[in-house]
Specification:
Number of helices: 11
Shape: rod-shaped
Strand content: 15-25%
Order of helices and strands: EEHHEEHEEEHHEHHEEHEEHHEEH
Largest sheet: 5 strands, antiparallel
Number of strands: 14
Structural class: alpha+beta
Strand order of the largest sheet: 4-3-7-6-5
Length: 464
């Protein structure tokens, strides 16, 4: 008390290699007798033993807490990703003795997205805390903020304005690969804050949680891959069935007419014979068209599709030609309104496929005997082909997929390869054109194709 110097008795405690020295100060004179010195040594040894018991208990409690945290993660490892994140965040809050936790997962290009936030509902417009998680991930180690008021970089639920008092963050990693970030916040003023034990528990949670998240994500990816393969198998089966169906009708017709010609060869009039041959020729053209569709579809998918020699062709003449080649019962349902010299720059044969496929599509879906209108017109920059039917129409949610590789207007309908509209879109795109679909005035579907016109000089010569 008086600031003066005093003599002390220094006694060693613990093993020589890692022991310590204890200085015992007395108010009066130092004990001189052997009994007093033995008593001092006994007191120091007992104090050392008590300290060892405290440290052993703390170490045991730490091990129990780490094991409990690890076991909690292991128990939830079989859940789906969303369920795992909810459980992991809830267990982290209990293990760390805090009120708010969040799990952030790495996304494409190394960015982070919030997987689950426990203990708080984020108000609309508030940042989700991904910037804070990114800061922890960039540090590559545990980050402790004891006073959030002094860390302006904290955002969202981890900022002081959101009620967070102290924040602890730990990266989630498997080997050297970042999986995400675990964030925890103390929000209660009576909380003891994060301790050294918290750090060890968080490290265990991060280690086991990262493995569980990685396994769950791999499982989800595998499930998605399996589902995609199943869908592709079904699409392949539908495609093969559609091709077989499309080929069956013309082949059956050909077989029938060939058998008839053989049986009635001597009794058929010249006109009847020509009529039979015309029908057979149309069936052959139909089969040829299906084969061309398969070839063009394969080239479009592989990126090897190319247009042949481009020339100025009359879109109206192409429409006339395609309709003339149709069977009489199909021609009877078509109304053509064509403007002369609707010139475009293109590949004649491929443009015939565009017209043919759009008409075939309308004939397939529009109920018999409703009329299908084909209109060809020309503006200053493009020529337009419009095919309009009075069928069931196309729901809005199917329009984005109907031009796909195996797209169908009615996905539950069998008996078509699904290539028609896919090929139309590919050919039109190769010509630098556009294709749109909307609802017709009659309630069916209206397909509009726009194709670039030739230069003004070429158009003038053609019109003349």
């Amino acid at each position: 008390p008086d600031g003066g110097r005093r003599e002390a008795l220094v006694v060693g405690a613990g093993p020589p290699d890692d022991g310590c020295l204890v200085a015992l100060c007395y108010r009066g004179e130092l004990p001189q007798s052997q009994a007093d010195r033995e008593l001092a040594r006994a007191l120091v040894a007992e104090a050392w033993t008590a300290l060892q018991r405290v440290e052993a208990r703390a170490e045991l409690e730490t091990m129990v807490a780490v094991l409990e945290a690890s076991a909690a993660v292991t128990d939830t490892a079989g859940l789906d990703v969303a369920g795992l994140l909810r459980s992991l965040a809830a267990h982290a809050a209990v293990a760390l003795g805090c009120q708010r936790t969040g799990i952030y997962l790495t996304a494409e290009h190394g960015s982070l997205r919030l997987g689950h936030l426990h203990g708080r509902e984020s108000p609309p417009g508030e940042p989700d805390g991904a910037a804070t998680a990114a800061r922890v991930l960039a540090a590559g180690r545990a980050v402790l903020v004891r006073d959030t008021a002094e860390a302006a970089w904290l955002d969202g639920p981890w900022a002081a304005a959101a009620g967070a008092l102290s924040v602890y963050g730990h990266p989630l990693a498997v080997a050297d690969r970042a999986v995400g970030v675990l964030l925890a916040a103390q929000t209660s003023a009576g909380s003891a804050g994060f301790t050294a034990l918290s750090g060890q528990v968080a490290e265990a949670l991060a280690r086991h949680g990262a493995l569980a998240v990685e396994n769950a994500r791999h499982h989800a990816e595998q499930q998605a891959a399996v589902q995609r393969l199943q869908e592709l198998d079904q699409m392949k089966e539908d495609y093969v069935a559609g091709i077989a169906h499309d080929l069956q009708a013309p082949l059956t017709g050909l077989r029938g007419f060939v058998a008839t010609l053989r049986r009635l060869d001597d009794r058929l009039a010249v006109g009847e014979r020509h009529e039979y041959l015309d029908v057979m020729e149309r069936q052959i053209r139909r089969i040829t068209g299906l084969v061309e569709d398969m070839v063009v579809g394969a080239r479009l998918e592989s990126g090897g599709f190319e247009l042949a020699e481009l020339e100025a062709v009359d879109l109206a003449a192409i429409a006339h030609h395609v309709i003339e080649l149709l069977p009489p019962d199909h021609r009877a349902r078509l109304q053509l309104h064509a403007q002369r010299h609707a010139l475009v720059v293109g590949d004649r044969l491929h443009l015939e496929r565009v017209v043919q496929n759009l008409i075939d599509n309308a004939l397939r879906y529009a109920p018999h005997p409703t009329v299908i209108t084909v209109t060809v017109g020309a503006g200053s920059e493009e020529a337009r082909l419009v095919v309009e039917d009075r069928g069931p129409g196309i729901p809005e949610h199917l329009r984005a997929h109907m031009f796909g590789r195996h797209g169908r207007i009615n996905p539950h309908r069998r008996g078509s390869s699904g290539l028609g509209l896919y090929i139309v879109r590919g050919i039109v795109a190769a010509h630098g054109g556009r294709i749109e679909v909307d609802t017709s005035a009659q309630g069916g579907s209206r397909f509009t194709v726009g194709l670039p016109r030739p230069s003004g000089e070429a158009r003038t010569r053609a019109d003349a």
